[in-house]
Each structure stands twice: as structure tokens, then as C-alpha cells.
Amino acid sequence: MFFKGIKDRILGNPVGNRYINDVRFRTEVSVNASLLFNLFYIIVNIISFFLSRSMWFVVLAVYYSILVTMRLLIANYIRAKGIGNDRFGELRRAKLCSYILLTVNIVLSGAVLMILYRDKGSEYKGVLIYAMATYTFYITTLAIVNLVRYRKYNSPVMMITKIITLSAALVSMISLETAMFSQFGAEMAVESQRLMIMLTGAGVSITVIILSIYMIVHTNSEIRRIKNGKQRYV
Known about the structure:
Blueprint: H1 2-12, H2 14-21, H3 23-52, H4 55-81, H5 87-102, H6 104-117, H7 128-149, H8 156-184, H9 190-227
């Protein structure tokens, strides 16, 4: 009854009702919210760099800058044209973001190398690590579910948005792994920890590359069909 009451209140509000029932509006809100959070993380990491002079925060700032670039491109596109109104435009914007997403692997490689050889990484004290673990697994699971769920809408902009979200969640898994080793890995050999971090980093990198190349190939193929007149341009 409690949750039903909350849901009824949300549905009774015009904005809440639209958010629940309008997938395009929900995507726009999600993109803009993520954009603001990533901008906040950039500022935090830049400040942290000046306070500690650690290049680790520079790597994180660059990583979040890439996410901001992609999400800003998507947010500007949605604001200008909406979703589902210009198929050709959506394909081009999704392809551009897919190319940019490939650069995440460069930053990811730098982050993994710093973790392995300069003992950098995330640390969460006390119960905070359990909260971060729960949150990281939740956003990763949700990102996978949404990636599958949103395929039915056949929107390149929606798909690349979900791919970016999944990629960000997978990168967060590496940060969580380093924090777990820091908190609970005292009895685990350093070589074993490094091997696991390398394998996780490689797995995330390969996943990001596959998703990016899939979107590039898919969008290029459809763009060619549209240009050749084999598919009607909507």
C-alpha cells in the first residue's frame, strides 16, 4: 500500500506521469541528469588534483570529460530535434558518439596501469564500501536490462545512450574491484590482485570496443541504405 500510494502520487503529477509513461521524455531526463553528475565529478577531480597533485584525478577527470562530451552531444540533439523525428540525424549522432566512446579505452588503459604500478585506485572506508558495491552492481544490472529493453524502440539515440551508461557502469566495476582489494585483500598475493585487475580491465575494454564497433557498423549500414534510397528517409 505504501509503494502504491507513492506511485499514485507520481502518476497524479503531470511531470511524474510523463516521466513514467513517456520513454522519450524519460531518456531526455536521464541524459541531462547524467550530464550534470558527470560535470560535478569533473570539478571534484580537478579540485582533488590541485589539492593532492595526483595524476590519478587527472585520469578520472579526462574519463568523465569523455562521458560529458557524448552526453552533451546527445542532449543537444534531443533538445533540437527530439527522438524519432529524424532517423538520419539520429544515426549520424549515434555514430559520432560511438567513435568517441572508443577513446574511453585509452583512458581505461591509463587507469589500469596506474592501479597496477602506482598503487592508485578507489578506496571506501567502513560500511561505505558495501553501499558502493550495492550501488555499482545495481547500476550495472539496470544498464544491461535497459540496453535489452530499449532495443524495441529502434532508436539509435536511445541505444547509444544506454550503451554509454553500460560502459560507465562497467568502468565503475574496476574502481569497486580496487576498493575491495584495498579493504579485504590483505591476505591475497599482490600478483593475484594485479592479474584480476588486468583481466577485469581487459574484459571491460573488449566489451566497450565491441559495443562501439557494433553501433558504428550498424549506423553506417543504415546510413548507406538511406543515401542509396533503399530505405525511406523518415
